[in-house]
Task: structure prediction
Amino acid sequence: MKHKVVVLGSHKGLGYHCVKSLLALDSVDKVLGFSRFESGDFVHDEKYQFYAYDFTKVYGHQELFQNLWHVLQEFKPTHIIYCAGGGPYGLFKDKAWKDHEWALKLNFLFPAHLLWHLSQNLEPCSFTFVGSAIAESSTGDAMGPSYTAAKWAMKGLIRSINNQQPSLKINIFSPGYMDTDLLPQGAKPRQIEGLVRDPSLLAKELLSELGLWQKV
Result:
């Protein structure tokens, strides 16, 4: 079976490395990337197609959402992976509300809206949401409160839907600290050797869990 995979948040970080790994697989027929910006590394690959969307602007905008949804329906994916994420880093009180709202839209409201549509229309397709082991821990992340709140909410939503509709293929992949722009260079986790992991390796772990990448 040839797979058709959608990666939402394909420009950098874990999403970028998921696309890079998927394009190297013979079992993958097509890869569709969605992000605010396009990565020039994939533009000449015949298996790859890109659409530019800002998910925080798509949420609440009916025309933009319907346009994105139409592209997904036409593509008929076997897997959808939501890698987009981010939020303000620092004390909750010090950040503008618009920054917290942006984090809630990107990490919870938009993917939740998309999942609602998927649950009604694309049941044969699997949906994987990238969470965060740090944000979803019992203590949360003191320097990313709105990001943490959104990740907790999405995990709770996925657990609840899985209990309601066991036939749906909804997964959550929650890595620890990753070496991406989301983690500032001066952050404490970067001072601990081995704590911050390479997103290229985590991408292969994620794809292995989905049965798309052969472990060696």
User: Anything to note?
Assistant: The helical segments are 13-23, 55-58, 62-75, 97-121, 145-164, 199-209. The mean pLDDT is 90. The longest strand covers residues 28-35.
